[in-house]
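=== RUN LOG ===
request id: a7f3
mode: sequence -> structure
chains: 1
length: 88
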Amino acid sequence: MRSIFPDHDRGTTTNLDREPTADELAAIDKEMPVILADIDLLDAQIMLLDRQPNELDARRIRRAEHKLMTARRDLANSSREFPAGGAA
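=== RESULT ===
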């Protein structure tokens, strides 16, 4: 019976066999503030899995959410392309 999977021994490479390109690393670096802010929010939420939140916990969650929204806004604004002519 013949295999339906491609033969990777012929010199073909998959996307998993290569290192990230400079452009991909630059994109990851640009998104890093959003990634870190998301991790902070997840950490704050994980701390509340086994207990009732108090005022300090609620403040921590609000701060983490605000940090994440700010990072997302900054990323969205930085990736927007503006016309070269000045005022839009």
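=== NOTES ===
The mean pLDDT is 85.
DSSP finds two helices and no strands in the chain.
=== END ===
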